[in-house]
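I would like you to help me understand the sequence and structure tokens below and explain how sequence relates to structure.
___
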Amino acid sequence: MASINEITLPEAIRQIRITCGSHDKPFFFMMGAGISNPPVPLASEIIDECKRLAPGLQEPPGLRPIDRYSFWLQKAKPSPADRQAFLRKLIGGKFVSQANLHLAHILLEKRIGNLVVTTNFDDFLSRGLTLFGGQCVVCDHPDTIQRITLATADVQDIQIVHVHGTYWFYDSCNLKGEIDIRAERSPSTAFSMGDFLDDALRDHSPLVVGYGGWEGDVFMEALSRRLKRQLRYNLYWFCYKRTDLENLPQYLRRHDNVLFVVPPAPEGTHEGTIQRPAESPKEHGTAGGLITQLLPLSEEGRTEPTLPATKVFRDLIEGFGLDEPILTKDPLGFLSNHLSMSFPPQKGGTHDQDIYVISNVIARIERAKKLLTKATEANELRLQEVFKAVRRSQYALAIHLAAGLSMKDLDQAHLQDLITSLWDSRHGLDDHPEEAIRCYDLVLDGSELLLASGTGNSAIYERIANALVDKGATLDQLGRHEEEIQVYDNVVTRFGEASEISLKERVAKAFVYKGIALGELDRHDEAIRAYDSVVARFGEAPELPLKEDVARALINKGVTLGQLDRHEEEIQIYDNVIARFGDASELSLKEALARGLFGKGAALGHLDRHEEEVQVYDTVVSRFGQTSELLLKERVAMALVNKGIALGRVNRRMEEIQVYDNVIARFGDASELSLKTQVANSLVNKGVALGKLDRHADAIDVYDVVVARFDGVSELPLKELVAKALINKGIALLQLGRRAESTQAYDALVARFGEASELSLKQEVAKALSNKGVTLGQLGRNAEAVQVYENIVARFGEASELPLKESVGSALNGIGFAYLIEGKKIWLDENPQGARDRWKEAHEKLTLALERSPQSQFVIGNLAYVEFLLGDEKSALDRLTLGISIGGEKFREVELADAEINSLPQDDVFRSLLLSTPLQKEEQS
């Protein structure tokens, strides 16, 4: 089965340009709701509105997204006419979204394609084309599909196909049954919507944007038929989130010609990961620790990376170097030309049919154009260049040009236009944080000028507050936390006493973000004071956004107290969260309640109060175990996993295993990455628990399930768990004395992840190789063990990351120890010089090992032993003294055991030296 092909947006645009350069209109656009939101709500938002309109109804369990949408829409709006009126209210009269305007801009050039297929009911795209002076052919019903002619060199019309209809008519497809019917062949016509899509997909490939891929709709049915064979051109599926891949069918995800354009992977540690010790040969599992509760991040600038439709289209415009639309390039010329095209031709020098005297209007426009050209000064010309760059999605250039403007010389109208244009540009600078900061500074400078001129309306103050908070979030991305804190202090200073709710929200967020930034700088006491400020100022506020910020502040304070090992105080904070939001009905506050309960359980675990810990996790499950909301389902899964870990810590292994089985039963069929990760966690932890019961064969079976179930996945958390399962399998096989199979398990891990670039997977590869080396040594295959250790050094010898440096140190130690023992054997073979040469090589390797792991008692002990064998007794004694101070009597036992291997006469002296070295007691302060 083919692997999932993930590529970045720049690489996708590069490939699309190559294909378009060699072929005429090779693509068509497949558009979904993501290009019209806002202002049109997404399916999830429509479901929420339908729930409000149909209160008291219970949703059947286990519904797919399309089934949930259909269920709630039919309950809230039973008849087709009801649904039509509902859609008209949602869509009619709304502004054209930016993404639709960008797509209209792209279509006018006709370089990529001139056909759009969409599941959307709105007419935004056709309105956008009309706005820019373009025309299009529209089909919104299967019976009119023959209006559409597929793109060829002779077909230049822009064509739009609404596969489910439009909001203008009651026979649009909203319910699952209606969508299924639309996907079938039509009995009333020889050429159906499905036939058309089959033809379109035969010679063209879609660029899919803003579309979730609902199984059963007419496009997905046609696509499933087409993907049974190779495509002429690659299909590019642009994913809003990386996790959107999870909801797509396997036939799509695993096709060689389907490329998924995904946002960059989130950086740093993810909430819900398992923190476990890195040293081998311990198993990965419950012995290592709880699922951690990291700082909860707000939705603004700190959540999972996304790839919105607007960015896709902006980058396509920039990548293809498209000129700006004539409407914005020459607005008066556009209007004059538009009127002239609609105006009857002259007959004998007169306009016989010019009853509205439009010729006079055209003449006035032309005069205005000439006067405007003369009146435009250098500063305004530069301003127009800024606007031109924005229209062409050249946002970095726009910022550069704007920085050279003299904003104080612009009139208020032009200054307002500039600020608005720059503010809209900020989303196009997501990958350029330094330019984004310049953009925020320009917006702030321009806004201050407007205030100074007396234009002090609330919208300007709100924009200043927003720009400051967003600038702080961007500084956070760059790790410039001191500057970030200053920005948040500015927000509080300027707007701390504001009465407007929008400004209060900015102040609350500034305090929350300041607390997070202070935590990054390890200034935890100050962070706690920042969170306290949120609660003190807004703790009694009735508005939902402020309640949410209070919840964030309390939870963040609890996490910070936990980082300081002040767990009793941490529990009090979570009890506060539970008391405040225990009866909340809003999803965001229910999620805060679940976080509070979960955090309390983890804190009790840190205090070894595991019985109480288990009870708290049971409360999470009882409160939210039947929820359909993903955020709450995640908390339930995490609580169950932590409950299993807690039970393991009090040696209730059978109950622990039952909990993991509960997770697997509840969420085993889930498609969301977060839930799949907890299922994989449960399987790995179940294997560890079975190992603790000496049921190693059963544990191996469980690890095999992990590998079979998640092998070939693209998501890093699942890859990590597959690697952990393989390492644990190797250790379990070793426990059963099946050493050769054990090394095969490590080889399987290296084969899968040996070329991985992610640090976590590199660490797993290093552990697997290290474990393999240890196992080969136990089998007496020292030469092969040395080869494995040399492999670790070759792979990671230049790594700067501490875990990999330590792995290299361990490998060098393994080589040095093997040489040490081999030298002793050579001595016993009556070759003293050969033995000394080998010990010198051992000393070289062990010295390098010590550079990477200066506190490793094993490296120190081996180095002491080889220095003794080389005759440097003083240095050996110093190192033994250090080793015993680090490792205590355990160190002494290990070194005594090593001296028994290939024992030499001089080992008696070494043992005496080792036994006479005192255990150093800590000095009294």
